[in-house]
Amino acid sequence: MTANRHIQELDVVELTVEVGRWPAHTRATVLEAFADGVLLEIADERGHTISLPSVPWAAIRPVTAIDQGRLAV
User: Fold this and answer.
1) The whole model's pTM is what?
2) CATH of domain 3-62
3) 38: which strand partners?
4) Tens place of pLDDT for every residue, the chain, 73 residues?
5) Three-state secondary structure along the chain?
6) Distance (Å, rounded) from C-alpha 42 to C-alpha 21?
7) What are the residue boundaries of the structural domains of the chain, listed by start?
C-alpha cells in the first residue's frame, strides 16, 4: 500500500512525473480512485476540462492547503 492511498475523489493532486504532454508538478483533480491508480481531470484556468489521464498512485502526490497558497485550518 502506498502513502497516497489516503487521496480521495475531488482531492487536488500534483503529478510527480511527466505524464504524456503534462510535466511533473501539473495540478489535477482526482475523479476516481482505483486499486492501481487514479483518473484525473486537468483543467484550464477557466475550469474547462482539457485532459483525463489515468495514472498510477506513484505518479501523484496530494496538494496541501499550504501548497495552494492558503493556511491550513
Assistant:
1) 0.82
2) 2.30.30.140
3) 33, 55
4) 345 668 999 999 999 999 999 999 999 999 999 999 999 999 999 999 999 999 999 999 999 866 665 544 3
5) CCHHHHCCCCCEEEECCCECCECCCCEEEEEEECCCEEEEEEECCCCCEEECCEEEHHHEEECCCCCCCCCCC
6) 11
7) 3-62
Grid cell listed for 12: 487536488
Question: How many residues appear in the chain?
Answer: 73
For 43-52, b/e burial (b = at least 16 CB within 10 A) is: eeeeeeeeee
Query: How many alpha carbons lie under 13 Å from residue 21 in its C-beta half-sphere?
Result: 4
Residue type, 12: V
Amino acid occupying residue 30: V
